[in-house]
Design a protein that fits this description.
Elements (H helix, E strand, L loop, with lengths): L6 E6 L4 H4 L13 H16 L6 E4 L3 H13 L7 E3 L16 H8 L1 H9 L11 H21 L4 E5 L1 H11 L4 H5 L8 E6 L5 E6 L3
Parallel strand pairs: 1-4, 2-3, 2-4
Antiparallel strand pairs: 1-5, 5-6
Helix pairs in contact: 2-3, 4-5, 6-7
Amino acid sequence: MPTNDRLLVLVRHGQSEWNLKNLFTGWKDVDLTEQGVAEARAAGRKLKAQGLGFDVAYTSALKRAQRTLDLILREMNETSIPIIRDQALNERDYGDLVGLNKDDARKKWGEEQVLIWRRSYDVPPPGGESLKDTVARALPYFVQEILPRVLRGERVLISAHGNSLRALIMVLERLTPEQILKRELGTGVPIVYRLNADSTVASQLDLAA
């Protein structure tokens, strides 16, 4: 691999037990389903098939992202690389919605209000974080800790969550708040970026099924 590869791969964790049950998860530490395990392994095989390797990996403080990362690295025979875990990469905290079925939340607060909490940029649910709050938490960590390593030519893998990854994608792809809200991230789907020296995206490849 050339030292100027500037490779950054983002992966949303595989399907979790609460994804399956349609529950607001946030910082609740739930595990992967069997499908989620299969998705993580498939992600590892896809990355290996692309001929990719990594120097360092980052993940959140939550086991669904950590386990996804472990399964990916096992498939790639890359289990010896350093792994850095930090809650800056945790999922958005849904506050009082955590543990509620999304349909039950709609019955309690109304469809429109729940949609605002889920899909507005800066309106947080009660006791929780908006996407703007999540960006304010995840982005400085990315800019200070992760991006400099990518720009030095290290090959970096991040296994995290839909909203913490949206925070990074918003900056990488220069999306507006309105655009990032519409960006769907599939569970266990790697997004492969190669960056220019100025941190702009040189190429992007989504390894969907």
